[in-house]
């Protein structure tokens, strides 16, 4: 079983991409049918313009996933490249979040009308929150690396009970750098 992990990754990516494309197609058909047949009175040119603008990120993300995740095979059927992991953490995970949120907003706009597109404002707010918490955690993690005296005061204030008892007894004094 040569390249067993690569073959499993290729099969997983193929299934994920197929499912993603089918869901996108179903949502697009759902939007078109409901807007043309049931909600015809509220369907205007602006409705389709909003749909195109707010669905563009989802289409771009799907295209990107197709490009990086689709397995490549040689003409003889041998696997050349399994594609990148579409379940990876980090940017890929964030792109899945945007894709799912876009699908949700599209379904909401189909049923509730054009005002439901305001729900898409959550994406940039979530991005800012995610960046802020990442930066804040990084800033706190690097606070002890400064060369000033203020870092020593915070380290001394955070002694464990054991360290405090040892210093109180006059035992071994802790030295901080």
Order of helices and strands: HHEEHHHH
Query: Helical percent range?
Result: 55-70%
Instruction: Give the beta-strand count.
Output: 2
Overall average residue pLDDT:
83
The number of helical segments is 6
What is the first-to-last residue Cα distance? Answer: 54 Å
Question: What Rg do the Cα atoms give?
Answer: 27 Å
Short description:
The chain has six helices and two strands. The chain is mainly α.
3D structure, described in words:
The protein has 177 residues and is mostly helical. Helices cover 67% and strands 3% of the residues. The protein contains 6 helices and 2 strands. It has helices spanning 4-38, 45-69, 91-112, 122-141, 150-157, 161-168, and strands spanning 72-73, 79-81. It has a two-stranded antiparallel ribbon. Strand 1 and strand 2 (79-81) form a beta hairpin. Helix 1 runs antiparallel to helix 2 (45-69), helix 1 (4-38) runs parallel beside helix 3 and helix 2 (45-69) packs antiparallel against helix 3. It is flat and about 85 Å long. Residues 149-154 have low confidence and may be disordered.
